[in-house]
Amino acid sequence: MSAKYYTQFVLTDTRYRDGNEFCGVVELNQPMEHDSDQRDIEAILARNFDLQQSAVRLISWSRLH
User: Fold this and answer.
1) End-to-end CA distance of the chain
2) How far is residue 43's CA from residue 49's CA, in Å, rounded to a whole number?
3) Sign of the dihedral through C-alpha 60, 62, 41, 51
4) What is the longest distance spanned by two Cα atoms in the chain?
C-alpha cells in the first residue's frame, strides 16, 4: 500500500542558489515507520531533480490521509 507525504525541502546544489526551498507531495511504495529516517524521501526528491541525495535537505514532512 502506497503512502503520500507533503514535504518541504531545500536543494543545496549550486544550480538552485537563488530559489532553493520547495514543497510538494512524495509518494512512497509503503508507509514509513514512525521512527524511520527521512532518507527515503530525500532519495526520491534527489532523483526527481537529477541530484545526489546529499543535495536535498528535508525540512518537514507529514503523511497525507
Assistant:
1) 13
2) 10
3) negative
4) 37
The three cell numbers of residue 61 are 514532512
Backbone φ and ψ of 57, nearest 5°: -125, 115
State the number of CA atoms in the 13 A half-sphere of 9 facing the CB. 28
Q: Above 70 in pLDDT, residue 9?
A: yes
Q: What is the pTM of this model?
A: 0.79
Of the options 3.90.1690, 3.40.30, 3.10.20, 3.30.70, the CATH number for the domain spanning 3-64 = 3.10.20
Cell of 26: 512524495
pLDDT at 36 over 70: no
